[in-house]
Amino acid sequence: MEKFQVLLVEDNPDDEFLALRALRKQGIDNIVVAHDGEEALARLLGPGSPGGGGEILEPAFILLDLKLPKINGIEVLTALRGNVRTKQVPVIVISSSREETDLKCCRELDVLSCLTKPVDGKEIVGILEKAGLFDIHPS
C-alpha cells in the first residue's frame, strides 16, 4: 500500500500518535501529518494558499480535526471544496467536538463521516470500503 497516501491534520500530539497507530495497524502507513489548518492547505493547495509552497500532496483521503490552530477544520474543508483539484478528495472528520453546527457544516461540505476521537482504524477502513476507496482487507 505504498502509493496509498493519507493526510492526517491533527494538532494534538497524543491524538496524532493514536491516529497513526490505528491507521498503521490497518496497513495504512504512507501518512503525512499537518499540525494546523494553514499547513494542511499549504500541503494540499500549494503556492498562493496560506503558507503555500513545497510539494503538493494528492492524498487518497484526509483525516481532519476540526479544532485546529491558525485555520480551523471547517475553513480547511471549505477551501478544499472550493478548489477544483481537491473538491472530490474524501474527508473523514475526527474531533472531540459533537457540536451540532460543526456536524451540520461537515454534512453540507460532503464529508464521508464524522468520528469521535480517539480514532478507530477498523472503523475508518470500514467507511473507506463502503465508499469504494479501500479494497485491501487488512489481516
Automatic annotation (TrEMBL):
Q: Which residues form the Response regulatory domain?
A: 5-132
Q: Which InterPro entries does this UniProt record tie to the protein?
A: CheY-like_superfamily, Sig_transdc_resp-reg_receiver, TCS_response_regulator
Q: Which GO terms describe its biological process?
A: phosphorelay signal transduction system
4-aspartylphosphate, modified sites: 65
> What stretches pass through the bilayer?
none
Q: What are the protein's UniProt keywords?
A: Phosphoprotein
The record's section on Pfam families has: Response_reg
PROSITE patterns according to UniProt:
RESPONSE_REGULATORY
* Protein name (record): Response regulator, putative
Species in which this protein is naturally found: Geobacter metallireducens (strain ATCC 53774 / DSM 7210 / GS-15)
